[in-house]
Q: What sequence folds into this?
């Protein structure tokens, strides 16, 4: 059920980002853009590890920040609903792709409980050219890490 809610959240956020945010004019991400996106995701994962709510919140797209009005609200949501990204045992970036004009960077995550999860990060280019995280959907696998 959590995965369905996460997917719905990504769909809603993607729609909201297209309708409300008016991000920078769309152009296909170059490899340097994908590298920047991975840097942003890594920075947020590191902020989660440090329990640095301000840093983690600053990497979220404006629509996410408007849903969770404070860094502490945002961190509470992550701790309760996204434990896989809050405290992963290991993370590996998978091949990126586009969906409906939105860049998606998947990560293979092994949780502290040795569960294999794929996190789909929807990224959004900002007017200044920087990248922010516009959503994350978790999908469990029928496997455990060995």
A:
């Amino acid at each position: 059920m959590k995965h369905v809610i996460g997917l719905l959240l990504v769909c809603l956020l993607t729609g909201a980002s297209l309708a409300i945010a008016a991000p920078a004019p769309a152009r296909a991400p170059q490899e340097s853009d994908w590298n920047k996106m991975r840097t942003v995701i890594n920075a947020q994962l590191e902020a989660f590890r440090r329990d640095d709510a301000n840093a983690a919140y600053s990497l979220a797209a404006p629509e996410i920040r408007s849903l969770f009005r404070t860094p502490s609200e945002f961190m509470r949501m992550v701790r309760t609903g996204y434990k896989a990204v809050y405290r992963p045992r290991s993370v590996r970036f998978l091949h990126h792709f586009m969906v409906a004009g939105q860049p998606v960077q998947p990560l293979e995550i092994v949780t502290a409980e040795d569960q294999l999860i794929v996190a789909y990060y929807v990224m959004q280019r900002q007017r200044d050219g920087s990248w922010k995280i516009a959503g994350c959907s978790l999908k469990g696998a029928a496997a455990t890490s060995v």
User: Anything to note?
Assistant: The first helix runs from residue 2 to 21.
